[in-house]
Amino acid sequence: xxxxxxxxxxxxxxxxxxxxxxxxxxxxxxxxxxxxxxxxxxxxxxxxxxxxxxxxxxxxxxxxxxxxxxxxxxxxxxxxxxxxxxxxxxxxxxxxxxxxxxxxxxxxxxxxxxxxxxxxxxxxxxxxxxxxxxxxxxxxxxxxxxxxxxxxxxxxxxxxxxxxxxxxxxxxxxxxxxxxxxxxxxxxxxxxxxxxxxxxxxxxxxxxxxxxxxxxxxxxxxxxxxxxxxxxxxxxxxxxxxxxxxxxxxxxxxxxxxxxxxxxxxxxxxxxxxxxxxxxxxxxxxxxxxxxxxxxxxxxxxxxxxxxxxxxxxxxxxxxxxxxxxxxxxxxxxxxxxxxxxxxxxxxxxxxxxxxxxxxxxxxxxxxxxxxxxxx
Length: 376
Prior knowledge:
Strand order of the largest sheet: 1-2
Helix content: over 70%
Structural class: mainly alpha
Shape: elongated
Distance between the termini: 112 Å
Strand content: under 5%
Number of strands: 2
Number of helices: 12
Radius of gyration: 37 Å
């Protein structure tokens, strides 16, 4: 079993490394800049993490954080940035060329320029030539989609570590939802106004990059609640439980669903809603796609706020119930001590009365004997 886990851990990291190098290769080929290969230095972190995980954890993944995904993101996201920015620049150049067309000759030149950017074989990189002719946008989209699918499949194949199978299945469903929402964000690039705005393109790419950090967290890994202890077992148990609830607020935050809700709100639904609303208001982009996804993000934000309020109310009620239980047990304890003191006092009175009984009996016996002697 240990050998099988080690093999799975190694294979997943090798696949992630290969995909990262392919993205850098594609970015270098399309932009014709060999300097982009310096991005491969980030893979050193992935290799170092692999050795640490294989040696220290025996291939098992960490419980709360997935460092291999973090280093994979650090090495792959810059390459996708280069590809998307190249698409933006190509689109803007095409529009500028179309706007400057005055004659048929300029139209012909502009068309040739556009075709050269859209469809070309891979360049010869370090002596390796791949004779593939495909549209640049298609290649970029394939790499982006494969990027998300690989993280989902990799998390499924990686050794579970300390999380259970139930938590892993929940995590995979969460990853599917995250990946679909992140993919929908790139639908903004289909709008002409968005492609022509360099600043908005940078904003979308920044939000997209931060949203990918969700894949590094294990949002379903929470501690199971402690079993409720009966009040009769120990009188001080409710007091200790109330103190634990008050003092471990930060610890409870990371052990409940609140952590997952805050991460989803800050890294995904909140920023997605903001950028879509900004696009609709500032650039007057009103299409079915952007209206639908904006409404979806708005509804999700409201549901997250509602769920967060429900959890806070439930926790506050638990604290109140614990304090009430502790106070009731304290009052019962005081009553029991009072009744105990009264019973002790009553027993002492009975003992004192029992001590007087023998003296009275002796006196009666003496009086009875004297009466018998005085009889004729």
